Amino acid sequence: MIERLFDPLAILVILAIAVGAGIIGAIVASRAGESWTIAIEVALLAGLGALLARSFISILLSLGHDTAGAGLIVGWGFFLWPGVIDTFLVLFGVQLLTSPAVLLWIAVAVGGLCGLMDGVHRVRTRDLFGAATLLLDTTWGLAGTTNGDLLHLINTFAGTHRDDGRRNAHRYEGGFHIKKDFAFTQGQVMSELSDGPGTPLYAHERTHVSQNRAFGPLFALTYVGWMVVMFIPGLVVSVVKGKPVREALEAWCYFNNPWEAWGYKVGEGEGASPRTAFGDLIWSDFAVVVVALFYFAGALVLAGLAFSAVWLS
User: Rounded mean pLDDT of 135-158?
Assistant: First the structure.
């Protein structure tokens, strides 16, 4: 484990990322007529992000003895897409993206880009809270950060980054979204969000940022898992209640999702919740809590079985 953490090639690449990020930061500062010290912040955040992400994944894989199972679980839990792709490829005896070597380089790229964008847009607070959020975003919350990096890449061309000050999160006006007029948040990146701080929608989306940091892979996987589990029941409800399929699925798979219900509850104090527009398809807060208890209990059991099979065997 120690040899991997201090691998000379990895250290050189991380230093190169820091230097390259610093150059980008200097160019951004020059064009904006701001202090060159921004370059130092960008370099430090990019290098630190890459180092933290790689070290975290390295420790997880080493504790799992670098087995194929450990790689697959880490790929699912902390980067999503490598796990999805290799789950299909494993049927053909291929492990393309979840081998230890590949996952470590993915971690470097994800953590480095996260730090780079944080520095360029100067969103991290210069205090312990800012340091804590960076640590969480580049370790426990890597699943959301991976998708957040993808949003950065898309929204650099498709959206407009808004300066809300140092709030440890990014907001793009316009950009990638799933449904028109609905914001889309991954990790610490909020997309298609024209409403700034102090508005209901902003409060809702910031809740998702906090959920990712607090619950990490549990948030990412159970969010998607809920949509999968509720797809068939949503179709049944559509038939039984005579509701349009799209409306029933949106209510059961999205609005009744405990993570979304939580987000809308937070934003509720600032204004009306769009959940109310679906009438009898929307569960009460009590019903959401009851169903969530059983759902998350099952999810934790599955997570525990996977963890014990790989890391405790």
Answer: 97
